[in-house]
Design a protein that fits this description.
It comes from Recurvomyces mirabilis. One of its GO terms (cellular component) is proton-transporting ATP synthase complex. The protein is an alpha+beta fold and 102 residues long. It has 2 domains: 10-57, F0F1 ATP synthase delta/epsilon subunit, N-terminal (ATP Synthase, domain 1); 59-101. It is built from 2 helices and 6 strands. The chain has helices at 61-75, 81-101; strands spanning 10-14, 17-22, 28-33, 36-40, 46-50, 53-55. A 3-stranded antiparallel sheet has the order 1-4-5, with no helix packed on it. A hairpin with a 5-residue loop joins strand 4 and strand 5 (46-50). Helix 1 (61-75) runs antiparallel to helix 2 (81-101). The chain starts with 9 loop residues before the first strand and ends with a helix. The relative contact order is 0.17.
């Protein structure tokens, strides 16, 4: 999703993934969000409301791979249904993070 001048006002749900902010000076910053909402105002101002957001450089590919492996063990194990459901949610977020790191 890109926001340009005169963008139509809208509200969009954000799934876990990468957000890149391109600055007027030409630089950019990348953040991984666990999900949330993006709201475009009538004056093309963008607001992002997210539960969690971290600079992409805070993550290592190796650490994410290890966390995915652990979550997969729990999701396919013999634990409670709640533990399995939580592990599946964790897997969705971690797999999105892993894709963003590539």
């Amino acid at each position: 999703m890109g926001i340009l001048a005169q963008h139509v006002p809208s509200i969009e749900q954000l799934k876990p993934g990468l957000v890149e902010i391109i600055e007027e000076a030409g630089g950019s910053k990348q953040f991984f969000l666990s999900g949330g909402f993006a709201t475009v105002q009538p004056d093309s101002q963008l607001s992002i409301n997210a539960v969690e957001g971290y600079p992409l450089e805070d993550f290592s590919a190796e650490s994410v791979r290890n966390q995915i492996s652990e979550a997969q063990k729990i999701a396919s194990g013999s634990g409670s249904e709640q533990d399995k459901a939580e592990a599946n949610i964790e897997l969705e977020v971690l797999e999105s993070l892993q894709a963003a790191l590539k």
